[in-house]
Amino acid sequence: MQENLAIATVPIQDWGPLYEAEKALRIGTVFQDLNKPFFAASDDGAGDCSCGCGAGKATQSGQPKSGEKPAGKPGEGVGQNGIGDRASSPEQQERERMMAEIQATSFAIDDVRLYLDTHPDDGQGLALLKEKLAERKTLLLAYAQKFYPLTADCMADLYENNPASECYCWQKGPMPWEGACV
């Protein structure tokens, strides 16, 4: 018996509606057209995974699956490490808020860059990439000025703005794995 290979076709993605950066980070794509659910649920809730794990229901309702911790944003009672933010200092909460903005913007940059791999001349994509790169640079500089630099570029920007500053100060703040942005 001879086996034949399948031929896959993938349609070219068109530019379409976009999610805001924070929502895109949560969902996993900046492009609304690429947000395809893995489990389809009917209106009566019968869309659970066939194994009975309840995955379809959990993703449709937005509620955590059994055994998962509830998702929350910094300042909403549950920190990213599962500890209540009420125990965090205001400085820690501000650090987490700023880091969340940097992460969301960085994610949007990565997603648009992937789009531009297949659409290098797309004006809307190039404009959004330029906008998000400038936004990320501004966010990183604001973070560096308030706390400490996260990248070597931040160090250079701090030094350029104030040559007398101690811009090589990674050691002045705890690293994220040391509890700075938990």
Any overview of this molecule?
The protein has 182 residues and is mainly α. It has two domains: 39-68, no CATH class; 74-182, no CATH class. The protein contains five helices and no strands. The chain has helices spanning 21-27, 55-61, 90-118, 123-146, 152-161. The longest helix is centred in the middle third of the chain and has 29 residues, at 90-118. The radius of gyration is 21 Å and the shape is elongated. The N and C termini lie far apart (58 Å). The relative contact order is 0.10.
Notable features of this structure?
2 domains; single chain; 0% strand; 42% helix; 182 residues
Provide a short characterization of the protein structure.
This protein has 182 residues and is mostly helical. It is 42% helix and 0% strand.
How many individual domains?
A: 2
What is the rounded distance between the termini?
Answer: 58 Å
How many runs of DSSP E, i.e. beta strands?
A: 0
Tell me the overall shape: elongated
Radius of gyration: 21 Å
Which strand-content bin applies to the residues? under 5%
Could you tell me the mean pLDDT? 74
Portion in helices? 40-55%
Secondary-structure class: mainly alpha
Which sheet architecture does the biggest sheet show? none
Put simply, the count of helices is: 5
Pick out the low-confidence regions.
Answer: 45-49, 51-85
Order of helices and strands: HHHHH
